[in-house]
Amino acid sequence: MMRQIGQISQIRRANYQPIIGLEIHIELKTKSKMFCGCPADHFGKPPNTQTCPVCLGLPGALPVPNRKAVEWTIMAGLALGCQIPGESKFDRKNYFYPDLPKGYQISQYDQPLAISGKLGNIGICRVHLEEDTGKLVHVEKATLIDFNRSGVPLMEIVTEPDLTSSDEAKEFLQNLQRIIKYLGISEADMEKGQMRCEPTVNLEIKKGNLTVYTPLAEIKNINSFRFVKRAIDFEVQRQFEEFERTGIEKQAGNKVTRGWNEQKGITILQREKEEAADYRYFPEPDIPPMRFERKNIEDLRKKLPELPEKRARRFIREYGVSEYNAAILIENKGKADFFEEAVSYARELEKPPGTKAIGDWIVNKRVDLAKTSPENLLKAILAKAGAATLDDSELIAAITSVLGINQKAVIDYNNGKEPALMFLVGQVLRRTKGKGDPGQIRLLLEKELHDDKKR
What is the residue-wise DSSP string for 136-157? Predict the structure, then answer.
């Protein structure tokens, strides 16, 4: 039985460093497939009921690219800080497998839609678009094929080998999934196969003054973030022990594909890894190259929503929520939107709860957003607190006093200078010796400034 990775001595552990790159496939939730008009929503549908001559690869059928899928892939590239080349094209990736009806896959090789991006400190090599394959269904004595998934738009994101641990890989994937959901281009549900990850792992090992590398292994058949972590940890351990036993180093062409067996918690050798030359890529003759004007790209950039990390920073800055609560509030776009709707509704109340209190309530009470409304949420908060904070004469007096002696900040705010409001919030907190909810103070200041402006 193989030892767990945690059992390797600290001295031996210091002699190696995992090198991890990720290939992530994400099904786009367009209404139709990538190159035909068949419905793309295939999950749970009766087998082979959403097919046509194009996605079945019948002779004479011609592909027509899905414009929406192209635009969404470019938007994903922009969200990941990628460059968008002025020209892109589709290619034929040739290989023979039962779930590939044409004998080739329409993909992208040397001119992807997006290149050279970054998510956190992890480089994004490329983002490209292709068609998904069919699905193999293994029964007792046979393997059946369901072509409903064949031809669904599939976006592939390839990272640089910048990751160094399973925890880092898991966190990266969770951040990426959150961004994709914010963009609204995919549900990215790993259990439904809408987001699939294939880590490539090897080790950098110090041998005295020399540095050597173990052979690359790409891991397939992973359907959850938890299993991504477990598969990488197992593969790191396996490669370390294999290197100690055999001394085999990385050489050109010695890549392998290994499958993750979740029941046994191990990776299993599947095949030697193909190189690009093995796929005999060539430009797709039935689809002309795509060319993009700079205006096209900028128009798509304007459609990008406020992304999770930026939104979390704004919640901390504007609403006074803690870093921990901000991370939970932006977990999904629906929750973040609900919080801001509640804050907006609170501004209309004569005695609103503070924004920090609203955030605390959503996080700590684990509010079921499907069964409540921002209005009812605020009623519950006020009922619990008794709305006592707004009866605090010290707070009201402090706000009145601060506005009276900081007329320049008031004028700056009325002229559209947002930082002036945060200055006033700070002055109120200073006058009350840190008492009070910054979010509530902000709301009261906004209300008072608005009313004063009307007067």
Answer: EEE-SS-EEEE-SSTT-EEEEE
